[in-house]
Amino acid sequence: MGFRKAIKRVSYVNDLADAIKFIINNNVRDELINIGSGEEITIKDLANLICEVIGYNGSLLFDSSMPDGNPRKLLDSSKINSLGWKAKTKLKNGLEKTYKWYVENFS
Q1: For 60-83, what is each residue's pLDDT tens digit?
Q2: What does the mean pLDDT of the chain come to?
Q3: Domains in the chain and their CATH numbers?
Q4: How far lies 18's CA from each of 8, 22, 24, 77, 104, in Å?
Q5: What are the distances in angstroms from CA 5 to CA 30, 60, 73, 102, 107?
């Protein structure tokens, strides 16, 4: 894996769909709107959380020769939050739902 200290924000797909419906239903037009959960996590912590969710007990190898390029990529979702929308799904819960869906559909 690449640069383990890089910080990202990730979002659950149902929250993204909910935000799009919110924008449409509130007639938000002619504006750029970022949609995000606001939760920050390092690549290393995300990898460890995924391991926890899927029950993987092996080791992870981080390759520092393959850096992310930008150690911090964060989305400012304050505009949509100020309009009244907030993400509902916490990262761990979203990963659990995604993994359950994957197992049910591809096992």
Answers
A1: 988 777 766 677 777 899 999 999
A2: 90
A3: 7-106 (3.90.25)
A4: 21, 6, 10, 14, 23
A5: 36, 14, 12, 27, 32
